Amino acid sequence: MARDLLGCYLVRRRGRGDVGGRISGGRIVEVEAYGGPGDPGSHADRAPNGRASIMFGEPGIAYVYFTYGMHHCMNAVCDRVGQGSAVLIRALEPVWGARAMRLGAPTNLADHLVASGPGRLCRALRIDKRLNGSDLVNGTVRILPPDTTERGEIHDGIRIGLTSDDERPWRFWLDSPSVSRSPRPRSRR
DNA sequence: CAGAAGATCTGC
DNA sequence: CAGATCTTCTGC
C-alpha cells in the first residue's frame, strides 16, 4: 500500500470550497509504512487506545499527530479495521499552489523543499489535528490517483527517526529532488 | 500526577 | 548540534 501511494497526489482544497476553488499540493514521492502490534516503531504497537486508535479504524482516514512540540505529521490509515496500520506521507514534489505552500516557510528554503519531510509537508498544506480522522477520499485534504502507471524506480530503506532499532525497509521513495534528507547518523546514547 | 520521550526542523 | 515546545504515555 505504501508503494501504491507513491506517485499519487496529495492536495488541499482551499479558498471557498467548491467550484473554481484553488488547490495546493503535489506528488507523493516519499512514504513510510507503519504496522500494528508487533511493529516497535509504530504508534499502534500497543493496545488500540489513545491517539493511535485512529490507526485501528477505517482505511482512507487521516491520522494526524503532533510531535516534538513543533510539528504535525500525517498518515493515511491503510489496512482493515482492527489491523492498526498506516502510511506516513513524508514528502511531496510541489505541483499546485507553490505560493500558498511557501507561507510560513523560511524565506531561503528552495521551492522544491517546501513539502520535503513530514513536518514541512503539514506546514505547507496547513494540516493540523483538526484534520485527524478526516476522510482522505472526499475531505478537505485528499489523495488523488496517479495520472500514469509509470512511476519510475521505487527505492526502499529503513525508516527515519525511530528510536527503536528497527531494520525493516519500510521507507519508500521515488527519484525526486523533494525527497527528504538521508537518515541522520544514529546518535550514540 | 510528574517526568520523560518523541515517526522533526531550523539556525547557529 | 542544541533548542524549540507540547502531547502522549509511563511509572510511581
Explain this structure to me?
- This protein is mainly beta and about 190 residues long.
- The chain has one domain (about 1-175): 3-methyladenine DNA Glycosylase, Chain A, CATH 3.10.300.10.
- Helices cover about 10% and strands about 30% of the residues.
- It contains three helices and eight strands, in the order αβββββααβββ.
- The chain has helices at about 1-5, 100, 120-125; strands at about 10-15, 20-35, 60-65, 70-75, 85-95, 140-145, 155, 170-175.
- Strands 1, 2, 3, 4, 5, 6, 7 and 8 form an eight-stranded antiparallel β-sheet that branches.
- A hairpin with an 8-residue loop joins β4 (about 70-75) and β5 (about 85-95).
- It is globular.
- The structure holds a DNA duplex (12 and 12 nucleotides).
